[in-house]
Amino acid sequence: MKFLIITFALAGAIAAIPSLDLRTGDENVELGSVITDLINKTINSLIENLDEPLVLDDINVDENSEGLSGTIDVTNIKISGLKSLVATYIDVNLISKIMNITIHIPDINLQFAANVDVVLAELIPLYGAGKNSIDLSEIELTITGLIDIHDLKHIKVQDVGVLIHLDSATFNLNGLLNNVEFTALINTMLTDNVAAFINDNDALLSKVLGQIIEDIVNQNTTMENFESFP
Ligand SMILES: *[C@@H]1O[C@H](CO)[C@@H](O)[C@H](O)[C@H]1NC(C)=O
Ligand SMILES: *[C@@H]1O[C@H](CO)[C@@H](O)[C@H](O)[C@H]1NC(C)=O
User: Fold this and answer.
1) Is the pLDDT of residue 173 over 60?
2) Which of 68, 77, 115, 175 has its CA 20 to 30 A from that of 101?
3) CB-based burial of residue 15 (10 Å sphere; 0-12 exposed, 13-18 middle, 19+ buried)?
4) Which protein residue's CA is at the shortest distance from atom 10 of ligand 2?
5) For the segment 24-46, what is each residue's pLDDT rounded down to a tens digit?
6) DSSP, res 204
7) What is the Å distance from ligand 1's center to 37 Cα?
């Protein structure tokens, strides 16, 4: 372990000196794979430490504006499937600090209870209550940005962008307008369109998802994460 800490510290110190020529010689290939393994270990340990299902805070909206008035309560929000996340491709340029990482998740299941009673645009009433579930399949994230590994206890990332692609998004919402037929229609419409919408609008989602990933990585990486490094 001590040897590895020294190796990483060395690798970090070298990465911190951009003028050093890392482009030639076999050592660089090895150094590159050490860094790749280190990043993969970080990802794997972030995932290992996640609860499954992951329970998120309730969301309570109590609005009274022209666009939206009324209340929305979303409770019992649970996400399963993140534990199966695998980084399938990791490329980091030690000089430019540009990272390019591909993440694959076979399935994500999102469950939540919702109680909605709002009027949209002072015109359209939207209400209903029920338990809901959304299944996403074959999710692939391409994460690019800058990675700072010179302090190995605290890997930092910035300017993170995320391109997302998924095979399908299956909606099973319940209780919309307290009307079974209407709810079935909406479920079909969402299931038919949302995956394509996400795939077509990933530039739009890229910044939002990038910010979430920056927050997770920049807050969570500590040396403890590397204790299990072989
Ligand atoms: C990262 O680690 C996982 C789990 O050990 C492994 O399946 C995967 O191939 C690794 N990815 C890379 C890019 O090395
Ligand atoms: C990231 O790597 C993938 C696979 O090699 C490549 O297609 C893509 O263009 C790269 N993206 C960036 C921003 O470098």
Assistant:
1) yes
2) 77
3) buried
4) 100
5) 445 556 677 888 888 899 889 88
6) H
7) 8
